[in-house]
Design brief:
The structure is a homodimer. The first copy, chain A, has helices spanning 14-22, 30-46, 48-58, 73-82, 85-103, 142-155, 173-182, 192-201, 218-227, 252-263, 278-291, 298-308, 317-327, 339-345, 360-365, 401-417, 421-428; strands at 5-8, 70-71, 110-113, 119-126, 129-133, 159-163, 186-188, 211-213, 232-233, 241-246, 270-275, 310-313, 331-335, 351-354, 391-398. Chain A is α/β, with parallel strands linked by helices. Chain A has 3 domains: 5-26 and 238-367, Nitrogenase molybdenum iron protein domain (Rossmann fold, 3-Layer(aba) Sandwich), CATH 3.40.50; 30-233, Nitrogenase molybdenum iron protein domain (Rossmann fold); 399-428, no CATH class. In chain A, α9 (218-227) links the parallel β8 and β9. In chain A, α4 (73-82) crosses α7. The longest helix of chain A has 19 residues, at 85-103. Chains A and B meet through α5, β4, α10, α14 and β14 of A and α5, β4, α10, α14 and β14 of B. β15 (391-398) of chain A pairs parallel with β14 (351-354) of chain B. Chains A, B: This is Histidinol dehydrogenase. Chains A, B: Its EC number is 1.1.1.23. Chains A, B: The active site is at residues 330-331.
Chain lengths: 433, 433
Amino acid sequence: MTDIKRLDSSSSDFQQQLDRLLDWEGVSNEAVNNTVREVLQAVKSRGDAALVEYTNRFDRMSVGSMAELEISQDRLTAALVNISVAEREGLELAAERVRAYHEHQKVASWSYTEDDGTLLGQQVTPLDRAGLYVPGGKAAYPSSVLMNAIPAKVAGVDELIMVVPTPDGEVNELVLAAAAIAGVDRAFALGGAQAVAGLAYGTETVPQVDKIVGPGNIYVATAKGMVFGTVGIDMIAGPSEILVICDGKTDPDWIAMDLFSQAEHDEDAQSILLCPDQAYLDSVAASIDKLLPTMERKEIIEKSIADRGALIKVADLDEAVTITNHIAPEHLELSVDDPQSMAKQIKHAGAIFMGRYTAEALGDYCAGPNHVLPTSRTARFSSPLGVYDFQKRSSLIMFSADGASHLGKTASTLARGEGLTAHARSAEYRIKD
Amino acid sequence: MTDIKRLDSSSSDFQQQLDRLLDWEGVSNEAVNNTVREVLQAVKSRGDAALVEYTNRFDRMSVGSMAELEISQDRLTAALVNISVAEREGLELAAERVRAYHEHQKVASWSYTEDDGTLLGQQVTPLDRAGLYVPGGKAAYPSSVLMNAIPAKVAGVDELIMVVPTPDGEVNELVLAAAAIAGVDRAFALGGAQAVAGLAYGTETVPQVDKIVGPGNIYVATAKGMVFGTVGIDMIAGPSEILVICDGKTDPDWIAMDLFSQAEHDEDAQSILLCPDQAYLDSVAASIDKLLPTMERKEIIEKSIADRGALIKVADLDEAVTITNHIAPEHLELSVDDPQSMAKQIKHAGAIFMGRYTAEALGDYCAGPNHVLPTSRTARFSSPLGVYDFQKRSSLIMFSADGASHLGKTASTLARGEGLTAHARSAEYRIKD
């Protein structure tokens, strides 16, 4: 019997039980902080030489210069024939769908002119250069290359630099192929805090970027946190989560497998099912027991399900929505008859998968929307990675002589109220009389 | 003679001189970090009791309960009659213009349906609750209340909670009046790290918010950095900056005063003028010398101008644009004949003030655009505070049975390529045949 928690929203201490289940504290580790600080400082002051040293040490390489760590465009393109045709076609279809979806997110400049000729607006521009961190080794996901790179290219970012560690010289052909398809401009065989430092500060060989995106281990996440401000960063992600609301009419095997598809990521991943039908919850539990032994990653799934999973009996679907809005899940499946009207009631979720056919796994790869989503209740205030993360805005303000004269009086009054008389006098110079 | 630096872009070491001028390292202080960590922990675990203790200690108050620290709606409204009519009308006009401008920033939900019935899109929703930090004492700026509160209200945030310290019981009537005008829902006489902790974790009296915005001292900035993740935060601002590009045809007194209007904020503020005309730079230097003794905040201005200001001779206006794009200034004034075509060449700036009449001071108070802008070169990757900071998006995905069957094959191929077989099987369940 799989040891998944069973909660009931009618228990008097349900809210405490739920909050205990959701509780997640990112680990902060003083030893990691010190190592990362040292690596950042070394790369900042010694550039390429430090990158080569750390890469030889941490990734067990033996290169003599940064030039040997650049992965050429030809090498990226070569990967396209080193993978299977089905894989190549899969990546190309996924890229095409991701690109088409993200085109809808582009923000355009706007402005308007007032009666006295005053022009106000915002000018929207892309970042000049973005850095994409891609993990190496086992957790190397080509889908993440597409999901991080394509929004940047759609935004119009001039140059996209990818870093991916190649521990012991091992490269992942699918990752290189995805980079070729996504249009990565330059790539380096770098990883860890040193790769983040290279992108943030620039070296003789690695160009300085304006923003760094992409997932990584605790060293990478810590380094991204420390260089934030010098460059922009995307969110620092916690463990992945899925929340399923089901009315009890979907094949319980499907739902069990959907829960597994989150749980297999990581022992800390969280899979939760909300349903008003106790008998259905029992059948999903039975499906879990039946299917678990057949799974390749069963040890990870079992621990994730036991430690952080839950089957929750709710009073009705309305209550399920209320609980969901408290949880603000990364992935939300609405496995119900009318998912569209339920979705309208959802206030906080990274992505909403509507209907019994919409497995979250489709969204992870090729539906089109981004799979980089806010975790750990941060969907309360943040959004999926998107084109808007690679664009920024400048306010536009142009006053006519009349407009400046008229509004200058208000600015002067308010500036003097704040004791800022240079502000006041600067506005007053433009007042006619 | 005011001691403002004179740079020339034709010097061989110009780039190094410029980078030295721009260099700014935010201070990180271990003693501050420890104090803030302790305050956050105390408020998280002891709630109202800790808020009352810290407020009595740090703000020299003597209240018995959090209830005494709530500032009622009646008290906010009363402030509207405690200020002058000109001030009230100024705040109301500013609020109206800021609201009208920010209405243009609202992002709407969107979706599209593919041929096989697959629906894709994004649902845009406001944050439930936002917290607004307002500094107390001398640096209390009512204009900042408007600039932070109004975008949240335009976004549709349900509840806006303001915190403002009242050291020794001293309240700022203009700040309370601005809160009444902006529609702040609840207000508390709290400041420092304890106020940030109250908003981030919630207490018996202070509601937990989803995002905290607004400026503050080093304790507030440090606390915001530490609670990031539990709640969202706006940017952590550095010293204010202005960059003026002038063709040499604007009254030099006007430009000198525009430079002062940044410099008077703070000794670390930065004011830079780029101009191709050496004689004009000399006249601005003369205006600085002439006007400085007449300024109320002359000590601050003098130090800021001497330590961080510069008059820079450039080859021509095109070079001025190139240098500006490197600097990515917070405020940019284009005091030239055709500012609109020059603005199109600007890639990175917080706000662009076009034309000789558009004093930056107008933008600070009442033009409409936000005065919370990216500093310290972060305009390379970030934007003015806006309605979009109080909205977030959820991806929408709904597959038809046919769409799920068709794309399930691609998802399965890609998932198996990544070794994630629960993902693959979850997609495969939805493949017909």
